[in-house]
Amino acid sequence: MTPAGDGERGMILVNVLLIVALAASIVVLMVSARDTGIDRSLMMREAARARAVALGGEASAVAALRRDMTEAPESDHMREAWATVIQPDTPIAGGRFSLNVVDARAKFNVNMLARGVPGAQAMLADMLAALGYPPEYGPLITRLIVTSGPLASLDQLALGGVDAETIARLRTIADALPVDGPINLNTAGAPVLGLLLHDSTKAQQLIARRTTTGFLTPADLAQTGTVTPPGTGFTSDLFYVVTRARIGGTEQVLTSLVRRRTDDAGRPHAEVIGRWWGTPPV
After folding, report:
1. 207 partner at 20 to 30 Å CA-CA among 19, 124, 192, 227?
2. Model-level pTM greater than 0.90?
């Protein structure tokens, strides 16, 4: 056999190096694919655990709200037993957890406009005027909602040409809810209360009273020379439950809309009528 020349030996070496490099690349890809698969599996397990924790938080809030219907049906405020399920951000095994309950009846429901509820247009006009908008804005938004039907979210107003700033400002005093009901004077904020009473001074007096005692009664309103405004009350049937659960590097945010009602037999019910995973709408 004729010995290989320098050129042939060089080519053989190059080919060997190429084969070695290719094999090393394949090994790296296999290891990377395995690591990626492990990471993906881990994230899926963490996400599943976080969702389970979030749903558990939802269930505890629903149970507390149902129990409150029989224990204290005459009033709903933030010092009742149902509010004790509220949990600030706290460590749990493998991550963190928080739960908040927000009274959905603390704001004006724009969907009352679509259903022609008496007084709804006047209330919207007052709210928009308080926000500094000209009188024509009320009829404009009313037409949009009447034409489109009940909104799933205030964000849908953008489809009718309402700008983002107006929607953001409106969100501070209004919401789009699937069920009509009175505004709860025990949870309404100062802007909403001032608009309902047409008197910001009386609203501040009532909020100070509410802060001290935890709730309001018709007698409290009478002391300020005020009667209970139409379309308002002291109880609520709709609540947002916002649960955040982080397990490892995965976070799940669940917002649930809980409705309370009494059936024909007088039995209390609290049920989830809407769920959103991700950024909460409230």
Report:
1. 124
2. no
